[in-house]
Amino acid sequence: MSGTIADPRLSGRVAPKRRLRLSWSDPLLRNIVWQVLIIGALAAVIWYLVGNTTRNLEARHIATGFGFLSHNAGIPIGEHLIPFDPSFNTYGRALIVGVLNTLKVAVVGVVLATILGTLIGIGRLSRNWLVARLSAVYVEGLRDLPVLLQLLFWYGLLQTLPGPRQSWRLGDAVFLSNRGIKVPLLDWQDAHWWTLAAFLLGVLGTLAWARLATRRQEATGIRPPVWPAALGLLVGFPALAWAALGAPFTLDYPVLHGFNFQGGGTISPEYGALLIGLVTYTAAYIAEIVRSGIQAVPNGQIEAAAALGLRPGAALRLVVLPQALRVIIPPMTSQYLNLTKNSSLAVAVGYQDVVSIASTTLNQTGQAIEGIALIMAVYLTISLSISLFMNWYNAHIALVER
Amino acid sequence: MLLSILVRSVFMAGSMLAGALLAAGAGHAQGSGSATLDAIRARGQLVCGVAGNVPGFALPDSQGVMRGLDADSCRNIAAAILGDANKVKFVPLTTTNRFTALQSGEVDLLVRDTTWTLGREANLGLLFAGVNYYDGTAFLVKKATGVKSVKELDGATICVQPGTSTELAIDDYFRVNGLKFTPILIQDLSEIQGAFLSGRCDAYSTDGSQLATFRATQPSKNDLVLLPETISKEPLGYVVRKGDDKFFDLVRWTYFATLIAEENGITSKNIDSFAATKVPELRRLLGLEGDMGKALGVDNKFAYNVVKQVGNFGETWDRNITVIGVPRGINALWNKGGLQYAPPMR
């Protein structure tokens, strides 16, 4: 830790080498002995537990190992991001479907909860009495009720919607029923991939242009406007690419056929209930984090920024936010992790996340230890990834204190 | 209740590890030669896993006493081992945690509408000791849908409990018939029934017995139609752990004893009038001669206790299943056209 910024006076001087004495009074020897003993004891306990479990599983004729992952699943899954047919797909693929379903909730949930939470957190600081009070009621109400209860509430509410034949509709395109929200889906063609590529190119171009503008500002003090170039690159360029390829645009409309709608895209009530429940619940916590972050910046900082002649937008961006984010990011990471882990309550509302599919799998195959181990591995991986990203972001925006 | 699903699965995986520690040395202590039997005797109580929320099979009455065919099946075993049908602790289990509970030793015996399949016996370390209900997967729909047959359910949304053999049976049947369906899988029984009633699903599928009792207990029962097809065989019964043959034998023969009693017209009311019977099999059944009980590791009067305190198979059936309006059907005795058959007790 101190290696890189070591006191220059000490450089060149090496700590005196000490000989290891074979005596209990030598602290170095004591340290080594204790550590070896503790690690040895831990290893022995793990060794014993694993060995004993394996022996007992064998004695009870319970199948072990992960071989079941390549067996034919046969368990139906309602929602899947990748094609899944229980007739010939395996348990391994079923679990991947589950992981993707978990990520679908976690990623969308984190984004929406951040937006909603930030709005409510700022709303709580509003000078408008009504907005401030409503935000306060929201926060106190939602974070005081158990999240499982809220999920069941939302699921119950979505089930009271009318059936597919009596669904609420917006023209002939959007249908809201107890089978979920049905929306028309764009018939995706090659031209759309090119349009998407053009858009991504536009994003890169805009970033480059902004960097150029900053350099120009540093050199001349005048900042050339960025937005016309951004508009052209982000909207005009993709539109041009799309038009050049014949401007294909056909929509796949949901049509009532038999029991249910066919075609179009669906947001199922199970996914909807889980997402709404998790987002509104987590947003209450995020609102408090945002509020505390903003309030942690002393008023004097804003006044000082104004005294330096910074406009309010620049003051927010350059003075308030960097100091507020320092307070906001670490607890925000915890909330993202909470949302991800709370998504395992999906079983309660019938959404097939990784826990739901893994517990069905472990019940059909009877391999509880392997099933639970897989669930833990999945959550550990997702959580560590979130933590790593947030730590990186935190280090990236942290104030460099001198 | 719902949270417990998760908590329990995690806990049980843990307790399998920990339980392994304890179970390692025990079991070979002196006693009957059956670790399970010894544990039940030492505890003075049979711990029996049941559903706890299915009318007719296991559901607490207004006094909190567990009632139903499965509950009485547990009482049979308690009466056989301990001589007292009331020495049972009922543990309600869900469809997904039931096997772990039995494997880890949390319950001695599982009687929870559990289908006997090859996979469960071969992979889960379990044995099915008897079938107290021959059932089959069926479908319940609302009359308003106008559906008359399972074959008309193409494209339908179907509510089903996860981790059940129903889940696999529906998939097999729809695959064979080239039909498609969307599953809605909810763990909690009341939640999934609520989803069906609210119209989230077009059909609700589980064992026919459960659908019949569910329909019978609904105020809107005349709007609900049980489809005529039974698409699979679902023999439900007593499940024990592998590796304790003695306990397996005892459970199996206690169940057979209730069948033999019914076959011979012995009921809880008239059993004492058979005290002077000359029929050899009945004398063995009632412990008047031979060492049938001792061979199983229990008292020779075990079958007497079972029939006296709980009743013969027909009595438990009438008390629990007939009252909710389900006919005996294939669950009648073999000599009345059914499948319930006991080998001779000799």
Describe the structure.
The complex is a heterodimer of chains A (402) and B (346). By secondary structure, chain A is mostly helical. Helices cover 64% and strands 6% of the residues of chain A. Chain A is built from twelve helices and eight strands. Chain A has helices at 27-59, 91-124, 129-144, 147-159, 190-220, 227-244, 269-295, 299-307, 312-342, 346-349, 354-365, 368-397, and strands at 168-170, 174-177, 180-183, 185-186, 251-252, 255-257, 260-262, 265-267. In chain A, strands 1-2-3-8 form a four-stranded antiparallel sheet. The model of chain A has no long low-confidence stretch (mean pLDDT 87). Chain B is of the alpha/beta class. Residues 1-6 and 18-29 of chain B have low confidence and may be disordered. In chain B, helix 9 (245-263) crosses helix 12 (302-309). In chain B, strands 4-1-5-12-6 form a five-stranded mixed sheet. Chain B has a five-stranded mixed sheet with strand order 9-8-10-7-11. In chain B, strands 2-3 form a two-stranded antiparallel ribbon. At the A-B interface, helix 1, helix 4, helix 10, helix 11 and helix 12 of A face helix 1, helix 4, helix 5, strand 8 and helix 6 of B.
Q: What characteristics describe this protein?
A:
heterodimer, A: 402 residues, mainly alpha, MetI-like fold, 3 domains, 12 helices, 64% helix, 6% strand, B: 346 residues, alpha/beta, D-Maltodextrin-Binding Protein, domain 2, 2 domains, 5-stranded mixed sheet, 39% helix, globular, disordered N terminus
What is the CATH H-level superfamily of the largest domain in chain A? MetI-like
Going by helix content, strand content and strand pairing, the class of chain A is mainly alpha
Give the overall shape of chain A, derived from the CA principal axes: globular
How many angstroms does the end-to-end distance of chain B come to? 46 Å
Q: Give a short account of the largest sheet of chain A.
A: 4 strands, antiparallel
Structurally, the number of domains of chain B stands at: 2
Number of strands of chain A: 8
Total number of domains of chain A = 3
Write down the CATH topology of the largest domain in chain A.
Answer: MetI-like fold
* CATH superfamily annotation of the largest domain in chain B: Periplasmic binding protein-like II
* N- to C-terminal distance of chain A: 17 Å
Gyration radius of chain B (Cα, Å) is: 21 Å
Form type of chain B: globular
What percentage of amino acids of chain A are in beta strands? Answer: 5-15%
CATH class of the largest domain in chain B: Alpha Beta
The CATH architecture of the largest domain in chain A is Orthogonal Bundle
Order of helix and strand elements from N to C terminus of chain A:
HHHHEEEEHHEEEEHHHHHH
CATH architecture of the largest domain in chain B: 3-Layer(aba) Sandwich
